[in-house]
Amino acid sequence: MAGQDIIVVGASAGGVETLVRLVADLPDDLPAAVFIVLHMAPRTGTALPRILGRQTKLAVDHPFDGEEIRPNRIYVAVPDCHLIVNPGTVRVTTGPKENGHRPAVDTLFRSAAARYGPRVVGVVLSGTRDDGTAGLRTIHARGGTAVVQDPDDAAFPGMPQSALARDHPDFVVPVGEMGALLSKLARDGLPQEGRSAAMPDALDAELGWAHLDVDGPAPADPPLGSPSGFTCPECHGGLWEIDDGTLPRYRCRVGHGFSAESLFANQRTDVEAAVWTAYRALEERAALCRRLADRAQVRHAGISAQHFRVEADDVARQASVLRALLLSGSDTGERSVSEGSEE
Question: Catalytic residue at 131?
């Protein structure tokens, strides 16, 4: 077959160091376009292209929306913008977050799979949780090639381990061997004999929903899954549940997407934020009661003063219970969904 000239790479924690090692090993005449998503904070600076550019002679930069896709070039996602691969061009958009991230690995991977199918190589590098797993499965199902960093070689093995647990990647290698492998795939591709491009209905339907038609309106109803009974942590709309044979995934009407593990983590964050808000409200109420008691005492209104002091003590006890809960460090929310499913 012809070479696979669309290489999409996803990384999170530990990703900068890993990407530096990877691009340093890419040949100067690589006949492919490389697209990189590194999960980062929204207000992160734009230094990554300069950092990577010092390691390679390939052109490295943040793309502009609508930029032409060219080989021998590395496109790095803009902070707080999705990087989407369209036919012949790059889209840079502030679409709905995926797994709480923008840019998101799964968004890049899914768009590449939908537009380029067998021409795509997907690469999952160091990171936590399960980001990139669903997107890599989509690439694989569309006939592309799946490459995963050896978890023993990753600074944070969560993303590689998740990809291994939920699919059968074509290659599992340390990052030191990836440059040569990607160069070979870009030139020769991977033989397709015995490889299926069939895709589960849920994955195929999701391709038509999330982040692809960025100029058009969202459909009236998500054309996939069933109502989950859960709400979206981003917009608080209803979530549809998508089951493609592994752990379920979730997507809301406007397009926010979550793996089960990411939804679990976001729910824990929401609960913690709500408890802190309740704790703050109780502390303020106790302080107000004490102030009112002091003022009543100055006016020689002893009964009122006693009432407010009793109320202050009662509210303070409630606040103390919440504070103890917040500071207890309970491990209930620390376990990942995947860990829980294995027990």
Answer: yes
